[in-house]
Predict the structure.
Amino acid sequence: MNPLEHPDIASARKNALHIFKAGVDAADPYRAVRQCLSIDNGQIEIRLNPDNYQSKRIGNWSKIHLLAFGKAACAMTKAVQDAIPETLFTDRGLVVTNYENVIPLGANEVIGASHPLPDAAGLAAAKKMAARVRNVHANELILVLISGGGSALIPFPVDTITLQEKIATTNLLLVSGATINQINCVRKHLSQLKGGGLARLAAPADLHAFILSDVLGDDLSAIASGPTVPDDTSFADAVEVIKSRGIWASIPAAVRHHLEQGRLGLLPETPKSGDQVFATTSHTLVGSNAISVTAMLEASAALGYQSQLYSAKLCGIAREEAEKWVVHAKQLLANGISKPVALLAGGETTVNVTGHGQGGRNQEMALAFAMAAERHGLTANWTFLSGGTDGRDGPTDATGGLVDPDTLKRLANSTIMPQQMLANNDAYNALKHSQDLIMTGATGTNVADLQVLLIQPTLSK
């Protein structure tokens, strides 16, 4: 029998995918925006807190402008279209998303751009967005729809830095294992839009942002590098990030010069808390990784699992975190379980790229989990899933990985050496051979990553 056809394994894999999908569905960007935007007696009502009907921003603006960027930009724009009549908008909405998520949106202009590394299309879109914002006046409203991936999709480097130099800097940070907050800190100080830059361009117009968070802890200044909120990091912080990753000498000279000039106080800082440019801005956090994890807890309980939160902020090196999961699971089994258990997590790990293979942090975590399970002698029937809510893990077409106790056996049968594949950061091809890749396609949302570990007390024969 094909191991994937074993009834216990097949059932557990199906359940893991169902639980993961519940988490992705909870981050539905259309529903998240639609419930926070309405018209009453000709006035636009914006809910400032999705859970508080009384917390609102109400206005009768003379003109309304729509800007959207991020992986969920199209779905969020559709929600605005259905909530507000087209006649109330002064011009066409400007929507920027990754190529996989581009869909027609009526009169709105939808632009595809690259993620995770920016490209010329994103630069052109960012320039167009900045030009439009500069022409908005007081008593006009700019609705900004922000979701994960926005940092890469609207690159607008300062005039002394080229897009290629910014791409090189971003790439070096990514492969160095820098966290998303560290990467954003640097990008804010190289950009004309990030780190409150968009709000600075928009002032004194009114601005409201609907934000779908892909950042752990929902730090608004980190989501898409915080274009509409204060940035309390500094040029000095950006320099320290790069030096702490050991890549300062590899960074383009123009970037180093710009950051050093800023550190010395010779360039204006990003706008900070209390800056007047934020006097007419507001925001609504419409979705997050935490909301998706809650949905997974509910979905697993409904399937009969004893649901437990493993981590609400899973971070660190992917393969190291995978081993910690295995150790935790083995201890759980040693203490004894009487019914199936679902250990659930959300977060965003990192990968130190030293090889030349294909993969992403979720695929690497899944492969590392299977290897650690064998190494530590993890018994029982377990199934582990790690996937990106956007449907794309790293620069691959896979969402992530879904492994089980027979993953390494399937690799052995294909003559693949998992240790070598992991050392080469080639989890994609390893999991492809073991039939353990998850392929959902682009989901139209992005609230970071989700993990599911299902454990049965014993492995049925």
